[in-house]
Amino acid sequence: MNSKTGKVMVIGGGIAGLTAAWELSRQNINVELVEKSCFLGGHSIGFTCKATDTCKQCGACSVEEMLANVVNEPLINVHLRTEVCGLEKKDGFSVSLAKSAVEEVAPQGVLKGFSHHNSPLYVVADGAADAPEGAVSIDTLGSEGAVDVDAVVVATGYTPFDPNLKGTYGYDKWDNVITGLDLENIIRENGSLVRPSDGEKPKRIAFIQCVGSRDERLGNLWCSEVCCPYAMRMAGVAKNADPEAEISMFYIDIQNSGKEFPVFYEKIKEEIRFVRTIPVDIYPLEGDSLELRHMAEDEGAPSSEQFDLVVLSVGIMPGMDTAKISEILNIPVNQDGFLDAVPGDSGVFVAGTAGGPGSIAATIAGAGNVALATMNYLGGSK
Ligand SMILES: Cc1cc2nc3c(=O)[nH]c(=O)nc-3n(C[C@H](O)[C@H](O)[C@H](O)COP(=O)(O)OP(=O)(O)OC[C@H]3O[C@@H](n4cnc5c(N)ncnc54)[C@H](O)[C@@H]3O)c2cc1C
Ligand code: SF4
Ligand code: SF4
């Protein structure tokens, strides 16, 4: 048992950081939660509910619940728009904080959080006209200076694969080629699935799996684990909204693990067409449609098909600050570029997708374990 006072810094306010912070606070441990952007929640706070006739276990609502827990917990002190810029190991750690670079502010000068639990909900640039009620100036956000803590949990998350690196799919050229994250945004903003070019309901939809993952040419050999489930759930949502929609999923392998997922997979196979091939390229056709060329495994010759919308199932890549965090906190990086596990007696812990791909449920479970390991390091519950 050591003599730690029981204050932990959690870096990153996605579901991993929120969970670790919340679990630590349950044991009366004070938490300094540092989030680089202006809002807590990370990537998954913006996800929509995928329930159709039943809950599809997408995990989105658990992120909302955890955010509500954290913003109402006095033991958790939140630093928005803040980054770690240095760390000195003393008895515990002295961590230097700095304001993160001002985010890209929306054209009208207003940034909006995804959840009504985001506090503030609106952040505005100076001089923005018609600031919404309760909006906070971006200049007032951000912490600076040194904070002493006894342990550090790193939960800086992932970066979605950049679809422009797969140039033949024309993501930057054709409006109706979108990513899985774009699809989340479209459904959230419109309340239904519409295609970007004209706001019409797409009738023929293609999903392309393993975009950026399991790709030898890119050197990304890992499976991102989440893109098969999210694509199939989204396909289920589209089919439920329009039973006439024709949905095809182009894949090489299917990640079909988990407790509930195999059952859902068997059911969705009756509703959508699975084609085992990697599409080669995509071209525009008249009427905003797209031609997708592929080499079907059993046909041996190239074929092409028309679609109204193509969704690229982009995978989970190492977070963009991984190198910086690795250097400041002295955390090794594994062969895939994610943060590696750190020996438990170092006082530094890695949680969530900063350490490799995972779903919301897996991230919550893993971050809970990290909180437990951190408490053990601190010498038990306070
Ligand atoms: C297209 C797509 C769809 C998905 N759909 C699903 C789904 O339906 N169900 C599911 O279970 N999973 C889904 N996932 C996976 C899900 O997004 C992750 O499991 C989850 O977001 C991981 O949470 P995290 O906290 O580890 O990382 P993130 O969500 O990436 O959060 C990391 C946080 O850390 C902050 N941060 C980064 N760097 C720093 C820094 N230097 N200092 C301070 N803060 C920093 C970021 O701003 C962010 O807030 C999907 C993934 C993708 C790509
Ligand atoms: S887990 Fe997903 S599908 Fe189920 S209720 Fe929550 S948000 Fe909806
Ligand atoms: S989860 Fe599916 S789409 Fe994603 S990398 Fe793994 S096999 Fe490919």
UniProtKB/TrEMBL annotation:
Any matching Pfam family: Pyr_redox_2
InterPro entries, A to Z: FAD/NAD-bd_sf (IPR036188), FAD/NAD-binding_dom (IPR023753), HdrA-like (IPR039650)
GO MF annotation terms: 4 iron, 4 sulfur cluster binding; metal ion binding; oxidoreductase activity
Domain FAD/NAD(P)-binding stretches: 7-174
Keywords for the protein's UniProt record, in alphabetical order: 4Fe-4S, Iron, Iron-sulfur, Metal-binding, Oxidoreductase
Protein name listed in UniProt: Heterodisulfide reductase subunit A
